[in-house]
Amino acid sequence: MGATGLPGFGSLDRVLLATVLAGVALAVGVGAVLAPTMALAGVLGLVFVFLSFRDLGAGLAFFVALTFFDSIPGVPATSLTGVKVAGGVLVLAWLFVIANREKVPLVFRDSPFLAQLVVLFVFVAFISSLWATDRATSINHALRLSQGVVLFAVVFSALRQPKHLRWLIWAFVSGAVLTALIGIGGASSAETITSYGGTTRLSGNIDDPNFLAAILVPALVLAGFLIAAEWNPFARWILAISVAILVVALFLTQSRGGLVGLAAAAVAGVFLAGRLRARVLISILATGAVTIVYYTMIAPPVVLARISAFSSGGGTGRLDLWHIALVMYRKHPLGGVGIGNFQILEPRYANAGFNISRIDLVLDNPRVVHNTYLHVLVELGAIGFAAFVLLVLTTIFYGIRYTNLLSRIGDWRSELYSRGLVVAMIGTLAADFFLSAQYDKRFWLLLGAVAAIRSMTFSAESGNTPDARVRKKAGSISYGPERHEPMQSRPGP
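Structure (tokenized):
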């Protein structure tokens, strides 16, 4: 083979490769003229497929950004969205990696207890269809839940090195910021709340201000910790601007759940920030001051009334829905009513012997429970609820445990990424007390990322991190020119 030959390609192979590339370039060129949006989507799809099969962590980061845009502008809305197709490609890449026996973390091998909880949770979801009123709906929702659980396993395998974690965090923050800017710029629909004077709430392209708030909270936390982990001044400025955008967007959602999630993340940050505790305290005080100024001096009084008043007749009528869910659970305590069947049975409880302020949200347009934990409890019963809660708590416990090990090892950058993820997940769990998020892809992405902190720990122990390589190259200790005393290669923030 000559010097210009491609490794592993014969002359016929090179001709075929050139022909395929020429065909792809021609298709993209024609598509760019006839349907620019579809052509752009096709190019992004090819890039995503290439990244996913070349580096699962890079493909995951690309997918994280895509999850903020479930539909592509100009493409008719169908049940098969671009994100679902991308998720399928990511799973295929994951299976390809496993089939090639590459050394990647596997939740079923490396964290068997988490794997058992995942299997139990999904098993209860599927078996609940046996006693569900609407079996077809139950099976459909069980399949939806399975997608999130599979994503959890993929994330666990994809985040093998600190760079993968960094890419994922940047992708999550970028997606949240773009979503917020879309909403602030008025390029998406907004939800109008008539019960509080017709105020408008920011929803971005998520189409639900409460879900948007539940996304903005972890993005805000991750951006804050990422600022401390970045050395590049330009990157820090970008992140600082992102934090400001996320704070403004969070206020504009007018979401009580978002504020509760932010408060929970603040409390968790004080205890889990480690060396950043002082910075976290300053950030909490600054954010608190901005919040007070906004709601008392800038926001209309009707917005403050919405945030401070929590009644059945306001917003989504959560108290009504929670009451109905509790009554329904008492009649089906062990196995629940079947996954996906709460809204089907909900109208039957309109005359359950207690006052319902928002009867329209029960009879005319049945809503979900608007509480992730209560929703799982009423549909999957005590067994499914126990599996779900144990899965979440065990993952958080492992995340904190391995983050502390990263601190002892001295890999401060991976430690900061991990601390940000744990605090972000805690904020998400608090925000999910006000909405049903058990099917949300970003919930399982964050949970899987927290579980993957284990991989960062073993990577640091083996010296496969930037900080560890710097210390190893310098012999762990270097000496100053005039003083014979140890000098660290680079201190943490």
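The longest strand covers residues 191-193. The chain is about 65% helix and 0% strand.
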